[in-house]
Amino acid sequence: ATGKREYQKKVMKVFDLMEKMNPPDGLYPIYVTTDTPSPEFGSKKISMGAMGDSFYEYMLKVWIQGGRKAKSWESKYRRMYDRAMDGVHAKLKKVSNKGGYTFVGEFNGVQVADKMDHLSCFLGGNLALGAYTHPDGMDSPNAQRDLKLGKALAYTCYQMYAHMNSGVAPEYVTFHGDRDFGVAGGNSYYILRPETAETLYILYTITGDP
């Protein structure tokens, strides 16, 4: 790193712009258009997977990297993160009908699809990290709520591997009716996604639970 704040300021302008857009549930659609006098959301699609995952991950990690100070300029990103996680609990969290697996679906503008990307598996570890660094302490109700969801998502992501004959997970799985971990033919490939390994490592480091 150069240590020059000018680079940091330029990058964080993107987050500041998104903060001003202020969606009511804290969840940001994955497309933004700048072809208008002021930026607008280009669709209603919301995802913790492809094209959405890193935005929510960095909300939290920018604040952590800044020293987790309550009154720092980074603290607004922690507030954005907490609002977004409230939205995840209220809008995207689902439980499969058959096996009772907890997953985060994808909002397509009308409803939440019973589909979970492997990329979304980052969220289990991120929720645990958010709980561990929560301003009100790890024993606070919201921290415990998020840690519980993080553990449940980690288990589902592990099962994405365990349910495959190959032992590796596809790009995404579906949870339709009496079938958990359905795989579409065009998405059965595996490209060394790291999110599940990241989540399991973070949870183990924080909880000590093997």
UniProtKB/TrEMBL annotation:
Signal sequence extent: none
Record keyword Hydrolase present: yes
Main enzyme class: hydrolase
Family per record: Belongs to the glycosyl hydrolase 47 family.
Database matches in Pfam families: Glyco_hydro_47
Record's GO cellular component terms: endoplasmic reticulum; Golgi membrane
UniProt lineage: Eukaryota, Sar, Stramenopiles, Ochrophyta, Bacillariophyta
EC number(s) per entry: 3.2.1.-
A GO term for molecular function: mannosyl-oligosaccharide 1,2-alpha-mannosidase activity
InterPro entries, per the entry: 6hp_glycosidase-like_sf (IPR012341), Glyco_hydro_47 (IPR001382), Glycosyl_Hydrolase_47 (IPR050749), Seven-hairpin_glycosidases (IPR036026)
Annotated metabolic or biological route of this protein: Protein modification; protein glycosylation
Keyword field: Disulfide bond, Glycosidase, Hydrolase
Protein's name according to its UniProt entry: alpha-1,2-Mannosidase
GO biological process entries: carbohydrate metabolic process
Cysteine pairings via disulfide bonds: 121-157
Domain of life: Eukaryota
Co-factor requirement: Ca(2+)
